[in-house]
Specification:
The complex is a heterodimer of chains A (about 160) and B (about 220). Chain A is an all-alpha fold and about 160 residues long. Chain A has 7 helices and no strands. Chain B has about 220 residues and is of the alpha/beta class. The chains are: A mainly alpha (about 160), B alpha/beta (about 220).
Chain lengths: ~160, ~220
């Protein structure tokens, strides 16, 4: 299940597609008349980019859509969760999953993503603990060495 | 699933599932991957993804299945998933004639966006709802024959022909590879051959996709 989610999140947008939808968006932007569908299509490609800065740009576009097109919220929240997961911003990703599941508690797409996020957060906190544990060992080692040296000095002095 | 077992297959075939909203695309995927029927399935957002390893002619084949949203507003973006599909399941609902009438438009998209070797299977889903039927088997079969498509009537609810539709697609793709009709070196064949899979980890090191992957996740 989570290997599957990993494969899904690894899949990136084809640069040709990104370019095509970017052109549509820029054209409407110049005319000062961006439709929500054009903005969504561009954001959809951006959050599936291999580059974090694209994903972040996609997240901004989706956040903007949330405020101006209530009918599409279901889609926007889901892709905000996907985008944030892809840049490892698990706190926000989990927040969007939770918001979505309050409305549709049994949605398998979002439940799968939420499970994946929880697992990633657990893994990272384990890594964090391992790093902290490692640091404690090093400090412990230094202190221990200090004590040993001090003892040694004391012995030599005697 | 550990990474050593998850790579235990000889090929990856990319599949897509397309068709109108509400014809049961995601339910077919669920029936195939989970072997159960998902009642009250919500509309798919964008694309959903599922995998299953099947056996074709003694080879293990991992099917990577991209299940696209049927809602019109996703049509533009889901088209990008057609590229590089080795197999396409084009689904309509036997109880709604309009979904059958739209097949020519789905077929045009498929032909324009996939490569000529892509295997297209037409699925008339909801065959369990016999009393509500609006499209006869014969009429659909005629359409399939006229367009050179493989055809199954399926039921994601009872499971009828679901295995058959996916596995038959995989079998035809494999046959195309064997007979040289499908060039594995073509960038968008939708097929990846994996090496050293049966020998398992070599020198404690597994052939792992991640090693060559520059992805974010």
């Amino acid at each position: 299940m989570s290997a599957e989610m990993e494969d899904f999140l690894k899949d990136t947008v084809n640069p040709k597609d990104l370019e095509k939808f970017e052109k549509n968006y820029r054209r409407e932007l110049e005319a000062n008349n961006v439709s929500h569908s054009t903005q969504f299509e561009y954001a959809f490609c951006l959050v599936r980019s291999q580059y974090a800065r694209d994903i972040q740009a996609g997240i901004l576009l989706l956040e903007d859509l949330m405020t101006r097109h209530a009918d599409g919220k279901r889609d926007y929240i889901y892709y905000l969760a996907i985008g944030n997961t892809r840049i490892k911003n698990y706190t926000d990703a989990a927040k969007y999953c939770k918001a979505f599941l309050q409305i549709e508690p049994n949605n398998t797409q979002v439940l799968g993503l939420e499970t994946y996020i929880k697992k990633k957060v657990d893994q990272e906190s384990m890594k964090g603990m391992a790093v902290a544990g490692g640091a404690a060992l090093v400090i412990g080692g230094i202190v221990g060495l200090g004590i040993a040296l001090a003892k040694n000095k004391k012995n030599n002095n005697q | 699933m550990s990474s050593s077992t998850s790579h235990n297959y000889n090929f990856i075939f990319k599949f897509i599932i397309i068709g109108d909203m509400g014809v049961g695309k995601s339910c077919l995927l669920h029936q195939f991957t989970e072997k159960k029927f998902m009642a009250n399935c919500p509309h798919t957002i964008g694309v959903e993804f599922g995998t299953r390893i099947v056996e074709v002619a003694d080879k293990k084949v991992k099917l990577q299945i991209w299940d696209t949203a049927g809602q019109e507003r996703f049509r533009a973006v889901t088209r990008s998933y057609y590229r590089g599909a080795a197999g396409t399941l084009m689904v309509y609902d036997t109880t709604r004639r309009s979904t059958f009438n739209h097949l020519s438009s789905w077929l045009t998209d498929t032909r324009n966006l996939t490569n000529p070797s892509t295997v297209i299977i037409m699925c008339g889903n909801k065959s369990d709802l016999e009393t509500m039927r609006e499209v006869t088997y014969d009429e659909a079969k005629q359409f399939a024959d006229d367009n050179g498509l493989y055809f199954f009537e399926t039921s994601a609810m009872s499971g009828q022909n679901v295995e058959e539709a996916f596995i038959e697609t995989a079998r035809i793709i494999y046959q195309n590879i064997q007979e040289g009709r499908l060039d594995l070196n073509a960038s968008e064949s939708g097929v990846q051959r994996r090496t050293n899979v049966l020998s398992g980890p070599i020198n404690g090191k597994n052939t792992d996709m991640k090693e060559n992957c520059q992805c974010i996740v």
